[in-house]
């Protein structure tokens, strides 16, 4: 009788073991990925970027703020500023009222921080997981996005940076949009930049996660490469990783850096995101996702995969949530 009762318990434990073993194996691999010493010289290549909030183009920021920002950027590796100038409307249009002070800001930054490029950061929610949002499968929507891009470039921006989410791996309409955007921006000698989802930490993980949750957070490595080949600059959103410890997060960033380097052509700038914010919520633990852990992970991944790569940097997210400790960690660990 007792043996019969124990059988369901054994089956349950066996099932739990089968579920937990791959997770434990993956987490152990991430911890090991955080070990070692970065190669000398794996520091800034002066290709870094900073995401800036909407206050910079809607009139809330003053000339004194611009001067303070220029002083902040001095002697760092930051070359590009992604200034939030949207969001796009769900039909792909963008009213000029969304960025009324853009021209003034761009001129002021060009004077105060020569050599820094100012890009329009445009985004919107995609209708990939609900009917409400931007429909990239509609030719009229893609045409409207091209029109919005023309308008922000006419306002004086040096480029355009797109962050469209949630963007599922393999989206052919997105690739078609990038092809058209590349032709447009290159004709105007402007930069085409995108924010990218993380790459599968395990083979086909985006398919498994999508089937389980309905939200395939990751991209396949192959799709990441397809995107990277169509743009001038790709910035990996290497935060919100669900990792509970610094060592695991840093190991995850090291892995993401290597995976991205393997498929990003030398002609494209590859940037790895740094968490300049401190929220605690599902997917993000502020005590684990720190700037020092991220930078160490970036340097380890760079050391192991392509230590001499020139077109490489980090992207800081986001200016209005950053602390002095974040800026100090960026300077001490990456700018050096």
Shape: globular
Strand content: 15-25%
**Uncertain residue ranges:** none
Radius of gyration from CA coordinates:
21 Å
Percent helix range: 40-55%
Supply the number of helical segments: 10
User: What's the oligomerization state?
Assistant: single chain
Strand ordering within the main sheet: 1-2-3-4-5-6-7-8
Structural class: alpha/beta
Mean pLDDT: 94
The end-to-end span amounts to: 69 Å
Q: How many distinct beta strands?
A: 8
Order of helices and strands: HEHEHEHEHEHHEHEHEH
Tell me about this structure.
The chain is an alpha/beta fold and 336 residues long. The longest helix is centred in the first third of the chain and has 32 residues, at 2-33. The chain starts with a helix and ends with a helix. It is globular. Helix content is 44%, strand content 15%. It contains ten helices and eight strands. Strands 1-2-3-4-5-6-7-8 form an eight-stranded parallel β-barrel, surrounded by six helices. The model has no long low-confidence stretch (mean pLDDT 94). It has helices spanning 2-33, 63-73, 102-112, 139-154, 172-187, 205-213, 221-228, 246-263, 291-305, 324-335, and strands at residues 48-52, 78-84, 117-125, 159-165, 191-196, 233-236, 269-275, 312-317.
